[in-house]
Design brief:
mainly alpha, 78% helix, 0% strand
């Protein structure tokens, strides 16, 4: 069995050499030094090439973010599939073109995948970004019993939108459910500010102290991940 795996490994590498017109000395290295030759070849000509391609794509998207959208628009015109439409909608969302993103998400929702939680979540996000809080609430209610709703981004935006439309009691109920120790720092900061806005000072102070203490014992990775939120938490504690 081991022998056949090595042979398969060699065949793949030789095929890759010939297909990509790489130097023929690799064929001899792969044949006479199967494990070493194949391993070195994969590192130098397969994985590195893929990494370089990914890096190039990422740089292109940073320098010219609309290129990705144009490419996906053409792809959707050529093949109007659900997957291509969602990719285009996500690309619009990335460049903060929420109106066009919304059009594509709504169009996708009209297809046979109407229970796709990701699509509804993105629709809600678009409406929230456009300050259409009534629509956020409408769509949130459609998925409130969905298994993924609890403690999700949808529940967070639902709570914030309820406050915006004056339903303070229900807003607090939703936001409070996102208050989980050692997680959800952005959501918990928003909940603290919610409590402050509605004169629940003692509750806000208690939660702020809990969150602040947690941030002091974070790993370096988490401190980097939540850097901006931690700055706001520390500033709020100083000003409170």
């Amino acid at each position: 069995m081991y022998y056949y795996l090595i042979v398969a490994f060699q065949i793949f590498c030789i095929y890759h050499v010939l297909k990509n017109h790489n130097s023929y000395y690799w064929v001899f290295a792969i044949i006479f030094l199967p494990i070493i030759g194949c391993s070195v070849y994969l590192i130098m000509h397969v994985y590195k090439k893929r990494d370089a391609k990914m890096l190039q794509e990422n740089l292109t998207n940073i320098i010219n973010p609309t290129k990705k959208v144009r490419d996906l628009e053409q792809k959707l015109q050529f093949s109007e599939t659900y997957e291509n439409r969602i990719k285009l909608a996500d690309a619009y969302f990335e460049i903060q073109d929420y109106n066009n993103a919304l059009k594509q998400y709504l169009s996708a929702l009209d297809s046979t995948f109407q229970n796709d939680f990701h699509v509804i979540e993105q629709i809600i996000s678009c409406y929230y970004k456009n300050e259409n809080y009534d629509r956020v609430i409408d769509y949130s209610k459609q998925v409130i019993n969905h298994i993924e709703f609890k403690r999700s981004k949808v529940q967070f935006l639902y709570g914030l939108s309820l406050e915006k439309t004056g339903d303070i009691i229900e807003a607090e109920k939703q936001l409070k459910q996102l208050d989980l120790p050692y997680s959800n720092y952005t959501e918990r900061l928003a909940y603290i500010n919610f409590l402050i806005r509605h004169d629940k000072t003692e509750a806000a102070k208690t939660l702020l102290n809990e969150v602040f203490d947690e941030t002091q014992n974070m790993t370096k990775m988490n401190r980097k991940l939540y850097k901006q939120t931690i700055i706001e938490i520390e500033k709020l504690k100083t000003d409170f």
